[in-house]
Design goal:
The chain is mostly helical. 84% of the residues lie in helices and 0% in strands. Helix 2 packs across helix 3 and helix 3 runs antiparallel to helix 4. It is rod-shaped, with a radius of gyration of 58 Å. It starts with a helix and ends with a helix. The relative contact order is 0.12.
Length: 293
């Protein structure tokens, strides 16, 4: 009973937020084989107190480590979500830029085709106008020649020569007009071919430039995505290093807590040291015999 009272006195005397006296004995009996620090200098009550206290500290530390882990994982998850969003934005922006380039190229090509058709129409109009002028001039010359009367007093032979000469002039007018119109047609054909070729070249230039611009956009997007990946990797690395640092700080802090609590328990629950008694016999004084005598 004295031992129980002493034990209770010790348990009541030790006070710590890590220690619950009601659960200490049960926990000690369950986990005494897990002790790390030497408890050989502790009383049985001290061993119970230390075992339970150590577990309480461990649970508190584990809770804080878990909190740090959850914070780390949450930050990494947020970084990855943000990186995914950034990459999606880059892809979306690339698509928009390339679609804008496609539309711009289409507009330019349509403008080139419109200019081509307008120039072709002008060539046709000019050619038609020139041909009409030639025909009009030819008709006027023919009418002028036909209006010249052949004198009636001429001999049959002379009259025939005059008619033949007029027909020859009319034929030449018609031949010259046909040749002139052919030249105009050929010139118009050549001009239209040049205009068509120029339009084709211009549209090809637009297509090639569009391809170059799209390729540049793709390279830029790839570079931006690579930077996002690199930044994400570095950011995750920093978060993990911060966690390692926090974990190391917790380890160091709680190692000191373990030691402080152990030292406190040891100071209050230390076994009494047993010193061996060294017996020494008193030696008689060498002159005692003579003194007694």
């Amino acid at each position: 009973r004295l031992m129980d009272e002493s034990k209770t006195a010790v348990l009541v005397h030790y006070a710590s937020k890590y220690y619950d006296p009601q659960k200490a004995h049960e926990y000690y009996m369950r986990t005494r084989e897990l002790k790390r620090r030497s408890t050989s200098t502790l009383t049985d009550n001290g061993k119970e107190i230390w075992a339970y206290t150590k577990n309480s500290i461990k649970e508190e530390k584990s809770s804080k480590v878990k909190s740090e882990q959850e914070s780390r994982d949450e930050k990494i998850s947020e970084l990855r979500v943000k990186a995914d969003e950034t990459r999606e934005n880059i892809t979306s922006r690339l698509k928009e830029l390339n679609e804008a380039l496609t539309q711009l190229a289409s507009n330019k090509k349509q403008s080139i085709d419109d200019d081509k058709e307008s120039n072709l129409d002008k060539i046709n109009e000019n050619a038609t106008s020139q041909k009409k002028q030639i025909d009009s001039k030819k008709s006027a010359e023919i009418e002028r020649l036909m209006a010249i009367e052949i004198p009636t007093g001429l001999s049959k032979t002379e009259r025939a020569m005059r008619i033949a000469e007029r027909k020859k002039k009319i034929a030449k007018l018609r031949s010259d007009a046909t040749a002139d119109k052919a030249k105009i047609s050929n010139k118009a054909k050549t001009d239209k071919a040049e205009i068509k070729a120029d339009a084709t070249n211009k549209k090809s230039t637009v297509s090639n430039q569009t391809k170059v611009d799209k390729a540049t956009n793709t390279v830029n997007a790839r570079t931006e995505r690579a930077k996002v990946n690199s930044d994400l990797k570095e950011a995750i690395g920093r978060v993990r290093e911060a966690y390692k640092s926090a974990k190391a700080d917790l380890d160091a802090s709680y190692e000191q807590t373990y030691q402080n609590e152990f030292d406190k328990i040891q100071s209050e629950n230390k076994k009494a040291s047993i010193k061996k008694k060294i017996s020494t016999k008193k030696k008689s004084h060498p002159l005692s015999y003579y003194i007694r005598k």
